[in-house]
Specification:
The complex is a heterodimer of chains A (365) and B (352).
Chain A lengths: L1 H13 L2 H22 L7 H26 L7 H16 L6 H24 L5 H19 L9 H8 L1 E2 L2 E2 H19 L1 H11 L1 H6 L5 H26 L11 H11 L11 H20 L4 H30 L26 H10 L1
Helix pairs in contact in A: 2-13, 2-14, 3-8, 3-11, 3-12, 3-13, 4-5, 4-6, 4-11, 5-6, 5-11, 7-11, 8-9, 9-11, 12-13
Chain B lengths: L14 H6 L1 H19 L7 H25 L7 H16 L6 H25 L4 H20 L9 H8 L1 E5 L3 E4 H18 L1 H11 L1 H6 L4 H27 L9 H11 L11 H20 L7 H20 L18 H4 L4
Antiparallel strand pairs in B: 1-2
Helix pairs in contact in B: 2-13, 2-14, 3-8, 3-11, 3-12, 3-13, 4-5, 4-6, 4-11, 5-6, 5-11, 7-11, 8-9, 9-11, 12-13
Amino acid sequence: MTRAVSVSKNLRARTGTTGLVYLALVVVLVLSALLVAFQGGDLFTAANTVDLFTRSSLLGFLAIGQTLVILCRSLDLSVGYVAALSTMVAAITMAGDPSRIVLGVGATLGLAALIGLVNGLVITRLRVNPFIATLGMGLVIKGYLDTRFQGPAGSVPSEFQMFGLSRVGVLPISTLVMLALAVAAILFLRRTRMGLHMYAVGGDAEVARLSGIRPELPLIAAHVLCSMMAGIAGLLLASRFGTGNTLVYNNGYELEAIAAVVLGGTYLLGGRGGVAGTVAGVFILATLDTVFNTLSMDPFVKDVLRGAIVIAAVAVYARGRHARAAVRLRFPSGGAPPSAAGPPEPPSPPPSPPAPEHAARRGER
Amino acid sequence: MNVENPLPRPRFGSALSALRGGTGTVSVLLVLIFVVIATQNPSFFEGPPLMAFAKKAAPLVILAIGQYLVIVSGEFDLSVGSLVGAQVVIAARLIDGDEAMTFPVIGVMLLFGLLVGLVNGLVTTLLKVPSIITTLGTMLILFGAVRYWTGGAPTGALSENFRVFGRHGLDGVPGLGQLPWALVVAAVLTVGAILLMRSPYGRSLMATGDNDTAAAFSGVRVGRVRTLAFVGSALMATVAAVLIGGFAGVTAQVGQGLEFTAITAVVLGGVVLGGGRGTVVAAALGALTVEALFTLFNQLYLPSTIQPTAQGLIIVAAVAYASRRTDPRPPKRRPRRRPDHPNERPLDSSRR
């Protein structure tokens, strides 16, 4: 019992930035609404809200999967290609026949899981750096798609298009599915053994191994789940387009998903963060896109602003995080858990300089 | 270079130790590819074709050296592809066919490269943004800004003087026909980078990438060292842009995907992502290998669409092979590293 409590406290400490992320989301929403109102528009019309939610679902699937992988100290650069492949598999398997929907979904998710398994095995068994392993996997899929297919192929029955096109009120079905999967992922990470092991392996694989965890298993599981989420994203794309489309991979989804994860406060280093923050990160990016659209901004200016905003947001998080991390250094024994359990400390206003710079300055003299 | 040794000392005569690590793997791979190319096309090594290959490979070698500087310091630079594209478009727009503008514009490009590198470096080191995010942002910004500036499609034209570097060379060299300027530039920069890595700065850079806390405690100004690495990478991308622009001309797609090709080249050379390992020579050989691979694919008349598949398989296989040879048992002290932001490591990892 006490152990369970301390685990949950630790988890709260790990997901500490999540509050900050949701604050950022609110700030972005308010600023956007003001900006749009200033231009004589209204951000929260039904059409705009639907647009915002629709944008968030696709990126959400990819980013939730990416979160799991990043928590394990890995990375998946192949998700865009897996999504593209999944649109083709789904559309060709279904071939416009409503009775084959289940088969199509099964085939797509099965293939995606297989790709994730290969990624995971290449990273753990062959000890290839995740960056290279998944980039290589992406290239392999790209080559296959370009060689095998010249253009859109297959077709999705109209029943399945409901997944991408229909909605309840302002909430598209796909967004509801995305949010449901996000909740499932949060529960998975907090309540199941495998989820906790993912944090452990991401925090320090060696310590996890010494504690009796086989570090390979959570990592492989994370990659399988990440690829399956990419497969779901592919299903969504297929249901929106009505056919399979290979050119999906040109959209740079993998980097956008990583940006959303980092924006959501998950460490690229692994071991800290969570899906709740990622969802906020996804909504921040979706809000920006909706605002740019509402203001009918030049698409190229959009890129510039998006790049600048992602950097600025991550810089803000990094400041808060480093202030807190520096506090942790005062417990060099490592036994004391971070003091997040107590009353929330006021963030020390001058972020005490991290040790390295400090030492560097001393070294100069 | 021996991968076990975090701070390799120059070992001029020790070819054996050089063959053990990534340099060995990539050399063997390069030789293998060259052998296959030779069986397909025996005249490949007869001077002019070889020089044509060198001309084509030079920009990637230069980009790989720039990327090496950043990777060895434990960071990433994803912005080089966009930067190359931006620089070529800037050159075309500013020169606009006017010969007299050539060198002033090259100066402007170098300044612009310096600025981009400085921004990348300072944002990463001062604001503590993970470099993969910083340079991803710079990539988006450059991509959008340049297209906005030119209205979507590149305008203007390069001058003949500008294209000399990418296209022409020193004529009448015995045995070779023409010695391309691109090769000369790449060779000079490679030698320069080798010397740089043996200088105190290079040692600091290597130490920073291996363990930035230890480096900081030994008196290395980690932030400054890393920032300079980003500046170096951006300047190298600028030089590569001059060569690529001269060689291939101006299109909207120039530079697309080059950052991943460059990272591939560097990693193929056995430079570990996460920093602190590997040599300049290995990175340059990695670039040559990637380019030789492309040449081989062309000679085998593989459909160009299947090339990524082969490229992906070969990269993964080569890296798997290299990590098998250098690291036969599960790492005891050093868990596998991943692309990360090493500034954060000392504060959070339980390895402190």
